[in-house]
Amino acid sequence: MPQQPQPSPSSVAVVILNWNGAKMMATYLPTVVKYTKGEAEVYVADNASTDESLDLLRRDFPEVKRILLDQNYGFAEGYNRALAQVDAKYFVLLNSDVEVTPHWLTPLTQWMDEHPDTAACQPKLLAIRQRERFEYAGAAGGFIDRYGYPFCRGRVFETVEADQHQYDDVKDVLWATGACMMIRADDYRRAGGLDGRFFAHCEEIDLCWRLRIAGRRIVCIPQSHVFHVGGGTLPKNNPRKTFLNFRNNLTMLYKNLPESDLRHVMRWRWWLDYLAAFKMLVLDHSWADFKAVYQARRAFKQWRDDFTPDRQRIQDAQCDPRTPFSLLWQYYIKRRKTYSQFNMNKP
Q1: What are phi and psi of 289, to 5 degrees?
Q2: Could you please report the per-residue DSSP string of 281-329?
Q3: Which residue blocks in the chain are alpha helix, DSSP H?
């Protein structure tokens, strides 16, 4: 990419949403402050933490701006309320457990400046504990298959690849990770932001899907890379996380699927969700996760009609950015475990 002048601090705002994350911020916020200085303003939006987060910010990070929310609104609505108070051309949604690297913002900002058709982008995400491997929640850009299962360049279900520069090309994707996403403020507002009803999980995929339907691009820029811990708020195999993932994924499908495919996909998902639930019960011996899937499907059914107006608006500008194949079939039957083994244009 050609060299461009450094962005002015007012053009980029890095916003970290925090809830009881003092330990994470003490560890990783120093890299954000160090490697963002002169390129962006740094904000911490606090979701009514009860730990020492605010004392830490006042004492150790006086240069970081603070946005205080009156309760824990979750990831989605927390960001909506925080970003309503930020004036910038680009927002960067950044998790508190991310270690950034020198000049991490420059490739992202340059791409957005040079490509006004791009609504959002992400860097390459690597795992902080295994720094040569991709990180689960984003890797090198995300997609979903025809039944709503998300996957990434570098991570398919539980298979996480080593980063051998196989995904170092700039790539249009369906979704950028909420762990580290730069998004044009005008696009964020025009799309209505994250869906606050989701609380947490799948909200960034839903937002990016809506932006793609509206004809906007989502891109991964691997020339920037950061390191992510992952699972800092709700660890993996937490029943609450299982509930939110299943409920929100179904809701996202209901909102965004084309009418021609809605019934077909939802019928398959009934069987596939309960197959997953029985796997959790029989093989993983987790009654709590089994129950969470059942409760998630019931919760989706109870609130589905609340999303019908959203669905009707989205259908007015319909395109379908999903991959045409079933990820389960590719992964478990055809034994294709990595993104590079997929033909993205064939079932």
Answers
A1: -70, -40
A2: HHTS--HHHHHHHHHHHHHHHHHGGGGHHHHHHHHTT----S-SS-HHI
A3: 22-36, 53-60, 74-83, 105-114, 185-190, 203-213, 239-256, 259-282, 287-303, 308-315, 327-328
Using DSSP, state whether 161 is helix, strand or coil: coil
DSSP lists the bridge partners of residue 182 as: 92, 121
Q: Is there a contact between 133 and 126 (Cβ–Cβ < 8 Å)?
A: yes
Instruction: Provide the pLDDT confidence category of residue 230 given band limits of 50, 70 and 90.
Output: confident
- Name the 3-class secondary structure at 343: coil
Burial of residue 252 (CB within 10 Å: 0-12, 13-18, 19+) is: buried
**Four-residue CA torsion sign, 19, 188, 142, 327:** positive
Please answer whether residues 111 and 1 qualify as being in contact, where contact means their C-beta atoms are separated by less than 8 angstroms: yes
Q: Are 211 and 218 in contact (CB under 8 A)?
A: yes
Give the pair of three-digit tokens for residue 113: 């400046």
Residue 3 has pLDDT above 50, yes or no: no
pLDDT of residue 4: 46
- Cα–Cα distance, 46 to 32 (Å, whole number): 17
